[in-house]
Amino acid sequence: MSTAPTISSDARQAALYRRLNWRILPFLLICYLFACLDRLNIGFAKLQMQSDLSLSDAVYGLGAGIFFLGYVLFEVPSNLLLPKVGARRTIARILVLWGLTSAAMMFVRDVPTFYGLRFLLGVFEAGFAPGMIFYLTYWYGEARMARAIAIVMTAGPLSGVIGGPLSAWSMTAFDGAFGLAGWQWMFLIEGLPCVVLGVLAWFVLADRPEDARWLSDDERVTLRTQLRAPAAKHTSFLSVASDPRIYLMAAAYFCVICGIYAVNFWLPSILKADGVTDTMRIGLYSTIPYLAAVVGMVIVGRSSDRRGERRWHSALPSLAGGLCLAVATMAGGHLAMSLLFMTLATLMMWASYTVFWAIPSEYLKGDTAAGGIALINTIGLLGGFLSPTIIGFAHALTGSLHAGLYAMVALLVIGAALLAAIRVPRRSHEDDAAAESFATTANRM
């Protein structure tokens, strides 16, 4: 007789998290998909835009990376405001402004406007990814965090799966329509949906569980109980900013990001160098690494949650990603071998990226986590500026992508070492017991 209430409680919790999963995660996934699409479609635009506007590889690499300068300048302020103004207002504002700016890329005519709009795109998108991760801490506890992050973050590789064919199709199907080039249509088609998503965010999202009208009072109590966390170790953003572990996490993240954005920005060019000249074929081939990454992220995220282990689930994939990228680079010119190891490298890098974000989410507690997560992301995303810039200049100097890609290999190996060095202090026995109890419940869902 004593087991009946437990079964009933487990069933209620399972139903509650199913509702959360369907209410929150798909919408955030779609929003993040367009975020990735709108920052990365420049890789496909390059196939036409570079010759139309007479842009050198060095100019393209700097323009692709300058997005991140705008992003990092405004990211921490955006996230520090999020707990005060609410996630709904923050996410809606970001979506609308970056959608309009991304669509405005169709008006680029010269290098200054190219640099200016890429910079503004970073300014307006600033804070979205870390804000989204912080927002998930309002709804998911430690035992489910890596899986929740993995589901939303699959938008990154999914943007490659969807974005490759979509970008290639829009650039070829609409090329010349109404006097506009294919790359101009691509920016318009992929930018305007973000404005619609920004309007929807106002109605779909609730700032916190207490504000969610679609939750019952009992469900709110359940969430408060399940999400009850240890007292925050950091009392202010200043205490976060003076914590050496934050900078160790940021340095590791920087290295992983360099590898990811090397593939994101240069994969179409790598495929072209391997002998694929048709734009549609480039678009189709580019989906293969990202499809593999989606599967890898979910599997590694679930494994990390099931074992309650983060460090090695992030460090080992980063190391494997670097080694696979090295083999893919050495196999340049041999399409099958190059694409196979580029696929494995992409899978491993995204798996490392996914589990990484569960580490600061567990280490940082309370509203100060918003600033801490943003600080880590800000420093790490400098890799998004450095990576394409290094590869662009190396290509301009040597006529080959190899030198720049080998630099990314080295950074991924360094990142693996840094990830292995991250040791977050263990919680008390009481906290571990509570987390173990919750993990048992979560694994039944």
What does this structure look like?
α1 packs parallel to α7, α1 packs parallel to α8 and α1 runs antiparallel to α9. With 445 residues, this protein is mainly alpha-helical. The longest helix has 38 residues. 54% of the residues are buried. The two termini are 23 Å apart. It has 21 helices and no strands. It has one domain: Growth Hormone, Chain: A (Up-down Bundle), CATH 1.20.1250.20. It is globular and about 60 Å long.
Descriptive tags:
disordered N terminus; 21 helices; 81% helix; Growth Hormone, Chain: A; mainly alpha
Summarize the structure.
Helices cover 81% and strands 0% of the residues. With 445 residues, it is mainly alpha-helical.
- In this structure, how is the largest beta sheet organized? none
Quickly give the structural class. Answer: mainly alpha
CATH architecture: Up-down Bundle
> Which stretches of 5+ consecutive residues score pLDDT under 50?
1-5, 427-445
Number of contiguous helices: 21
Mean pLDDT: 83
CATH class designation? Mainly Alpha
> Helix share of residues?
over 70%
CATH names the topology as Growth Hormone, Chain: A
What is the count of β-strands? Answer: 0
Globally, the shape reads: globular
Q: Considering the protein shown, what is the CATH homologous superfamily?
A: MFS general substrate transporter like domains
Q: What is the H/E string? A: HHHHHHHHHHHHHHHHHHHHH
Evaluate the radius of gyration. 22 Å
End-to-end distance: 23 Å
Number of domains: 1
Strand percentage: under 5%
